[in-house]
Amino acid sequence: MSVAREVNRAQQMREKARHLTEAAERTGDPEQRRRLQEKARRLQEQSEQQDGRENNDLAV
Asked: For 10, which of 19, 37, 49, 50 could close a Cys bridge (C-beta 3.0–4.6 Å)?
C-alpha cells in the first residue's frame, strides 16, 4: 500500500473514532456508550499503529 493511501486510511480511522466518541456522549444507554467508547478506542489505537508504520516507511 502506498504511503499516501496509508495516511488517508489513518485519517479516516481517526475521524470514525471521533464520530463514535461523539455518539457515545449523546447516548443515554450506559452499555451502548461503553461499546461505542471501546470501538472508538480501538480505532484510535489502530490509527496510531498505522501512523507508526508510516513513519517507519518514510524513514527508510
From this structure: 50
